[in-house]
Specification:
The protein has 279 residues and is an alpha/beta fold. The protein contains 11 helices and 7 strands. It is 53% helix and 12% strand. It has a 7-stranded parallel sheet with strand order 3-2-1-4-5-6-7, with helices on both faces.
């Protein structure tokens, strides 16, 4: 019998690459999606050598509305079916909503939310018919905490809201598909060591955070894999972030917002300081 295959978007680095390795370690074949084809080829060679699994390389840009259809067709044209999906592709849209062009916001929404929903809509019916499927949506702990202005500067005003949508969509699909063998999980990591912070300009600030604020991509991936196997609708990686989310659930909203605003001020002060050479 052919090995199961998981489609991983944003697989060229960071959390996406870590999820690819995590599934490969469990014997899954991969369909790797990102814009940087050379990175995908390197990862495919790595997991082939380490775990003996096969990979499909699909270079595409999920900010293009037609990309999800092309990607699913490419897998079908290769004679494979999609048994798992890791929706991870993403980027920040630094700056404030009202100071940006709508075209930039539209691309951001397409990449960060609509592409996730399109891919789920394309693959979930087949999973349901076969009685097996695994879907992981990468959300963010920012969706579970009061909105922080410093975070908006680096990732965009809409970032927490779009990540919130992924949590509720995942919970809805668990209710819809849970008895059909299709497991769905939203993973909500906090700050994670990856290229994301280099691209959005936050590296200097993030590098000054206490070590307990920082997650590794491997930690996020292992947490997500365990959660989807258990069919847990939402999982927050890391003890610190679990504590923060739990605290905000019991504090009155005004106090929670005040605490986040105080942290905002600290991060603003750090941003004003010369960047450290540490990464």
């Amino acid at each position: 019998m052919a090995r199961r295959l998981v489609l991983v978007t944003g697989a060229s680095s960071g959390i996406g690459a870590a999820f690819a390795r995590t599934f490969a370690r469990r014997g899954w074949d991969l369909a790797l999606v990102a814009r940087r084809e050379d990175r995908l080829k390197d990862l495919a060679e790595e997991v082939k050598a380490q775990f003996g699994v096969e990979s499909l390389i699909i270079a595409d840009d999920l900010s293009d509305p037609e990309a999800p259809g092309r990607i699913v067709k490419a897998v079908a044209d290769a004679g494979r079916q999609i048994d798992g999906l890791v929706n991870n592709a993403g980027a920040g849209e630094p700056g404030f909503f009202t100071n940006s062009d709508w075209a930039d916001q539209a691309r951001f929404i397409e990449l960060m939310a609509t592409s996730y929903l399109k891919l789920m809509h394309l693959v979930a019916p087949g999973m349901s018919e076969r009685g097996f499927g695994r879907i992981i949506n990468i959300s963010s702990v920012s969706a579970l905490l009061p909105t922080a202005k410093a975070h908006m500067v680096y990732s965009g005003t809409l970032y927490p809201g779009l990540k919130s949508l992924l949590i509720k969509a995942s919970e809805g699909l668990v209710a819809e598909l849970g008895d059909k063998g299709v497991h769905v999980t939203a993973v909500a990591p906090g700050y994670t060591w990856s290229e994301f912070h280099d691209v959005n300009g936050a590296r200097g600030t993030v590098s000054r955070l206490p070590s307990y604020w920082m997650l590794t991509a491997e930690e996020v991936a292992e947490t997500g894999y365990d959660a989807v196997e258990r069919n847990v609708p939402l999982r927050v990686p890391g003890a610190w972030y679990k504590f923060l989310v739990g605290l905000m659930r019991v504090l009155p909203d005004p106090i929670g917002r005040a605490l986040i605003a105080r942290q905002d001020g600290r991060m603003g002060d750090q941003k004003a300081q010369p960047a450290s050479s540490e990464v």
